[in-house]
Specification:
By secondary structure, the chain is α+β, with helices and mostly antiparallel strands. The chain contains 3 helices and 7 strands.
């Protein structure tokens, strides 16, 4: 599991003073960016230098408790590698309570439009370092 802290900013909130869902999605995308960089496969490098990417094909989240400006939210990302895709499962906690959870499903695809490919072995090995037992 990969973990990072997202500090909710005033600009992340809606008129009710809670984090607005598009900003939560932004925070999750930033988490996956940070994770991929951490494991040595930044999204920008694999798409520009390796000829493949991991485009988002599905996402789903459940919001359980609101988060507000100033909250430090712990975002956990656990990868679940498949044959031609990887699922990023998220759990976000605020003061220990689950604020929201869900997933992003990403397919491994050629950047030239050639369709889905199997996850490269070196990427799979890097992802599996963060898979929970």
């Amino acid at each position: 599991m990969y973990e990072r802290t997202w500090t909710v900013r005033f600009s992340d909130t809606d008129p009710f003073g809670i984090a607005h869902y598009p900003r939560i999605v932004d925070a999750l995308h930033e988490t996956s960016d940070m994770f991929m960089q951490e494991i040595g496969f930044p999204f920008w490098e694999i798409s520009q230098e390796e000829g493949y990417g991991l485009p988002l094909v599905e996402m789903n989240f459940e919001f359980e408790n609101p988060v507000e400006a100033g909250d430090d939210v712990t975002v956990e990302l656990t990868p679940v590698p498949g044959t031609r895709s990887v699922r990023f499962e998220y759990v976000a906690r605020n003061d220990g309570d689950v604020a929201f959870s869900g997933y992003e499903q990403r397919v491994c695809a050629r950047t030239d439009g050639g369709g889905a490919i199997e996850l490269p072995d070196d990427l799979r090995v890097a992802l599996e370092e963060y898979v929970e037992d």
